[in-house]
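Posting this for the archive.
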Amino acid sequence: MRNYQSFTEIESDLKRLDLERKIVLEEMKLLKTEFKEDLKPSNWISTLMNVAGKYGLYVLMKKIWK
């Protein structure tokens, strides 16, 4: 625990803590927005297409090597 020598030190720390709190809130809003974007079906479809493409390439290469 910090010992303060004046009210200006207290006010300074309170301002700093308030700014830190606001920064964290904005970061949480950004994470919420990114999470919503990740849950959209269009993102799922593109991910599935990528996986299917890689699997298809794997099967094709496997047939070529035989």
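The radius of gyration is 26 Å. The longest helix spans residues 7-38.
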